Amino acid sequence: MKARIKITLKTGVLDPQGKAIQHALTGLGFAGINDVRQGKYIEVDLADTAEPAAREKVDRICKDLLANTVIENYSYELVP
Amino acid sequence: MKARIKITLKTGVLDPQGKAIQHALTGLGFAGINDVRQGKYIEVDLADTAEPAAREKVDRICKDLLANTVIENYSYELVP
After folding, report:
1. Which of residues 36 through 75 in chain B touch A, CB cutoff 8 A?
2. How many domains does chain B have?
3. Among B79, B2, B41, CA closest to A8
4. Is A30 in contact with B6 (Cβ distance < 8 A)?
5. Which domain holds residue B35?
6. Which residues of chain B lie closer than 8 angstroms to A57, CB-CB?
7. Whether this model's pTM surpasses 0.90
8. How far apart, in Å, are the Cα atoms of A78 and each of A53, A56, A59, B25, B42?
9. Average pLDDT of adjacent 10-residue blocks, chain B of 80 residues
10. Which residue in A has a C-alpha nearest to residue B57's C-alpha?
């Protein structure tokens, strides 16, 4: 079972990487870019096949290692 | 209109960041982690409201700036 995890900065948290991308896009001539936010995308391939167990494990993985829950949100989807 | 862009390394391209995460998870006591791949997640808020125009713009943004198409794949979804 695979978990596709998205980690994003919470609203209100400054995102200098996103701002740099936005600035670069404007510099490249792209118009109408209101905002850019950068996050992380992580795919974890789990040996577990039962969804409740996998869900519980991915939650713990996100909280313990991948996301800093003070400033970041995480969401994920499980695919077989 | 918002574009949610996922950029991932192509299969076969070495991913040391992913390997580091996998190693750290095993070290933390998580069992059954077969593989971890790290990518990027970028949200772009566009002024465009028409989907075909937005799609064309996001494709160009990905190819010109965000993704290195030699070693990375990108995919995205548009949300109103």
Report:
1. 36-48, 57, 60-61, 64-66
2. 1
3. B41
4. no
5. 2-79
6. 30
7. yes
8. 11, 11, 12, 18, 20
9. 96 96 96 96 94 95 96 96
10. A30
